[in-house]
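As a warm-up, study this chain.
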Amino acid sequence: MSRWEAEAERWLRDAVEDLAVAEDLLKTLHYAASCFHSQQAAEKALKSALYRKGVEARSHSVYALLLRTGKTYNVQVDSFEWQAKLLDKHYTPPRYPNLHPGIELAAYELYGKEDAEKCLEAARNVIDFVMKLSKS
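Now compare it with the structure written out below.
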């Protein structure tokens, strides 16, 4: 196994773990944290796909990573764009209350079950996409 393949596998394992954490957090009503871990799962999965091709990516944007993955693998990614953009919205705001000016609530109080469910679905779809790429 090459260095790049080993790194890809390591990142994919971490992505799957983040997805499991997001699922657990949803079950325990920690919606904001679930959204963040869903974003992390998709980000790490896409980085895994890029590592598999010998490409190192440092972006935290799921959307940017998705576009780069599409170009690298020469595949269409249009059907995942809305999911990537959704997840990008949950990278920083769930963690910092001062990113919501004029709102006196804690960041986690702005999230609900539906938010976490949508993020989980998006992350699962991105991970499934990456798993299929890794088999091709």
